[in-house]
Amino acid sequence: MTAQILVVDDVAANVKVIEAKLASEYYDVITAKDGFEAIEQARSRKPDLILLDIMMPGMDGFETCRRLKEDPEVSHIPIVMVTALSEKSDRLKGLEAGADDFLTKPINDMALFARVRSLVRIKMLLDEVRLRDKTSMQLGMEPTTNAFISDVTGAHVLLIDDDRVQGKQIMAKLGETCKVEWLEDPEQALARAKDGQFDAILISTFLTDADGLRLASQIKSQEETRNVPLLVFVDEDDNRLMLKALEMGINDYLTVPVDRNEMIARVRTQVRRKRYQEALKSQYQKSLSMAVTDGLTGLYNRHYLNTHLTNMVRESLKNSKHLALMMMDMDHFKSVNDTYGHDAGDAVLKQLAQIITKAARSTDLPARFGGEEFVILMPETDPQAALGAANRMRELVAATPFEIKDGASIKRTVSIGVASLRPDSDSAEGLLKRADEALYSAKDAGRNLVKMAPNPVPKGW
């Protein structure tokens, strides 16, 4: 996972050490020597993550963080404060200023990389939603406010903990600001999480008859709870478990015994991010109309795809990130209409759109290109990953029966062409053209095949 990281520290030696660590993992590093330069760099470069020192002259890290979180253009960028301070009061002050996490000097490499990977994953999802919002604005739709939502009063939180003493303490502490639902049984909690519409879920890793991290993984794997922030309770000395949780995609952790103010601050941070993402998605959905969606399948139409693809190509080239495009066409679709009628043909296309939507990642953008042709835009996907995704899609379609009428079903296949963005002087038109040529190559080679466009992205880009 590539990302651009802004390192802010007034001590040049500290910057060089962190820069070397990050560069060894192939992250792109930019630097700033004080808070003023950090704000300027954040606004101009829009990094994926900010590592911010606290003790700096002129403007300390707390004030820098506060100003960044008040700026709608950069408020969504995760901030990790790096400090020699280990007092809970300092950590709380940073969390209240908007920081997402803390690292204590000297920095542990595993802790650094775990936090970077975890927060960059979240930032990537937010970037995709924000970019779609920008595309909607270019098409004349209502814009969404970019500011983080500060009020999280009444947030619905699920607590999963079979320690009654600890559970009562957390209920008392968190119940002052949130609506907390406490369950002791893991299986009951898993079912409740699925239909509870929670803003955050807190899970103990000290459960008597269950593995807390495994339960968290199960919750993350469910479609209904995939985007709900998860926080786990861990022993303050169990660094291995903390890092494992972050690696798994758990959003944050709380050490026990739990500090009331820190718990409230960390839950608030996660709920704010979730509500911000939901606000973007909600406004985005409300703004969509038949002008940008296909009336039959409900997918984006060609007009929307062309606008969004142009934005994605520009952003990917600017940030040296991969971008792939999959173009597919249903084989012998005309025979469906000729044999079973156009109503059956429409039903088949709707079902194909559903298969595509279900198989695509949350960051991918599926669209109906026209007729029986569909396109999937795949950000930050290298050629090999794109080829693998296309073959999985082809196999899934071939294995899925399409219902037509009166309980009857038929089998159909698709041919797919895949193209990857070139890092030199590529364009949306060029990417589409190469994918289209690869698609026709798959058709000519016998159908039910995937073909990669020639001259893909050079190795190492």
Shape: globular
Helix content: 40-55%
CATH architecture of the largest domain: 2-Layer Sandwich
| Separation of the first and last Cα atoms | 12 Å
> Please, what is the CATH homologous superfamily of the largest domain?
Reverse transcriptase/Diguanylate cyclase domain
> How many domains would you count in the coordinates?
3
Counting DSSP E segments of at least 2 residues, the number of strands comes to 17
Assign the structural class, choosing from mainly alpha, mainly beta, alpha/beta, alpha+beta, or little secondary structure: alpha/beta
Overall mean pLDDT score? 88
Total of helices = 15
The CATH first-level class of the largest domain comes to: Alpha Beta
* Percent strand: 15-25%
